[in-house]
Specification:
This protein is mainly α and 458 residues long. 70% of the residues lie in helices and 2% in strands. The chain is globular and about 75 Å long.
Length: 458
């Protein structure tokens, strides 16, 4: 324990406060309301309204199946279009928000102009995006197109593929966010590049001119880099980042090794919490860029009428593993009510149950406490690991749909399982996980009773 306190705890604390990871974490948090709004729109379309996923297929879900031959059905389809617009303005362009949010937080941490850095970052990101689209000619026009010498595809300038600004472009957006901001902040520290305005000029104008030359240099650096990469490889920077960074990471996090990575993540979240450090916050800068794009891909697939393909997402952990907060502490509170004879445990449980229902568990973490409590260490770590494996197996074998929505983290368990999967089987899995975690905690709560008895005889 002394070694952990001397070496591991300081390292974990430094990791949690590391400038770039903190900027990524805070950046994701900043646009989370937009993500939730888009996910809610997709949830309404597919779970509530319904409609034919593909032409000619039977309609077996949602309100549309009951009104498809009436004017109400027509209005339901119009409502689906409205929800689709919300999705397009939020989740479909997720990568657009990243350079703004991450760059702003990173620049502010360096005490630089956050707004100017955010604008430069989003401009730099757009600079490296593909600007030409190739569109397949419809079958009925193919012969005429070939005869006219236009070929089987039509290309044009001025198109930005939605995939480049959605889940597929998130790692490229992160790359630009960090590199453009660091370059811009470094250049703004050079007094020779600062254009000073008279004191009579409004502050907003002065700040704008102060960042003029650093901003221009940053933009041209990315423009030249994109040009060189295209000339050398034939692909732009986003395509290379996707092929050599994002795809391999996604494969490892979702393929056969996905369960291993998930268990490692869950393990360290709870070891850090046991040591008194906020595990999810410390690891968010690493986990969010992996598990949030996976969730966005699922939502995009559902919106397109296809099936979700990623098991491990941010909602996977929020809805089925962190039940009542890290450590699945809501089942612990239920076990205390059922079996604990300790007045201190029961008092803390009464105070913690209401926040615990809404995924807030600091009262039980520090009040019981769980932090540095060897009696509860094993179930606190083991229960989430077991829930991770059970949920993975349930989704792998098709018993429960994969997650397809983002929800506020304060959403109560069971309800969260229903919302993130769009299926009542998700709610049932949430309930089963609560029971399993309850059974894991139960014998340790009994053991805690005996501790009091032993101390009373001394």
């Amino acid at each position: 324990m002394n070694w952990i306190e001397q070496h591991f705890v300081p390292f974990a604390a430094k990791l949690g406060s590391q400038r770039h990871l903190a900027a990524i974490r805070d950046g994701f948090v900043a646009f989370m309301p937009l993500m939730i709004a888009g996910a809610f729109a997709v949830l309404l379309n597919n779970f509530v309204l319904g409609g034919a996923p593909q032409p000619g297929e039977a309609i077996t879900f949602g309100l549309y199946q009951f009104f498809q031959d009436s004017s109400i059905g027509e209005w339901i389809l119009k409502l689906k279009d409205i929800n689709g617009n919300v999705w397009f303005g939020t989740i479909a362009i997720t990568a657009v928000f990243l350079p703004i949010a991450v760059s702003y937080n990173l620049a502010k941490s360096r005490e630089k102009d956050g707004l100017a850095a955010a604008l430069i970052a989003i401009a730099s990101f757009v600079i490296i995006l593909p600007q030409v689209a190739n569109i397949a000619v419809p079958a009925e026009l193919l012969d005429a197109s070939v005869a006219a010498g236009l070929g089987e595809t039509l290309g044009g300038w001025g198109f930005i593929p939605v995939s480049s600004i959605g889940a597929e472009g998130m790692f490229a957006a992160l790359f630009v966010s960090l590199t453009a901001t660091e370059l811009f902040c470094w250049l703004t520290g050079n007094k020779k590049l600062e254009i000073r305005m008279p004191d009579t000029v409004p502050p907003a104008v002065s700040r704008s001119f102060a960042s003029l030359l650093p901003g221009i240099i940053t933009l041209f650096v990315f423009a030249i880099a994109q040009f060189v990469v295209v000339q050398v490889t034939g692909d732009g920077i986003p395509a290379l980042i996707f092929a050599f960074i994002q795809e391999p990471i996604s494969f490892l996090a979702q393929g056969a090794s996905g369960i291993v990575f998930a268990l490692i993540y869950v393990f360290f979240v709870h070891v850090l919490w046991f040591l008194g450090l906020h595990g999810p916050n410390i690891l968010a800068g690493i986990a969010d860029p992996i598990y949030l794009p996976a969730l966005v891909q699922n939502i995009d697939a559902i919106q397109a009428g296809m099936e979700a393909t990623n098991i491990f997402t941010k909602s996977f952990f929020d809805a089925f593993v962190f039940l009542g907060g890290s450590g699945a502490t809501l089942p612990l509170l239920l076990a205390i009510f059922a079996a604990s004879k300790r007045e201190d445990y029961r008092t803390i449980a009464k105070l913690s149950i209401a926040p615990g229902v809404f995924q807030i568990n600091e009262p039980v973490m520090f009040g019981m406490p769980i932090v540095l409590n060897p009696t509860l260490l094993i179930p606190f770590v083991v229960a989430p690991l077991v829930l991770t494996v059970i949920t993975w197996a349930a989704m792998l074998f098709g018993l429960v749909p994969m997650t397809q929505a983002i929800i506020p983290w304060i959403t109560p368990p069971v309800l969260s399982g229903l919302l993130v999967t769009g299926s009542f089987t998700g709610a049932l899995l949430g309930l089963i996980n609560i029971i399993i975690a309850f059974l894991i905690y139960y014998p340790f709560v009994i053991a805690a009773n005996k501790e009091v008895a032993v101390e009373a005889t001394k």
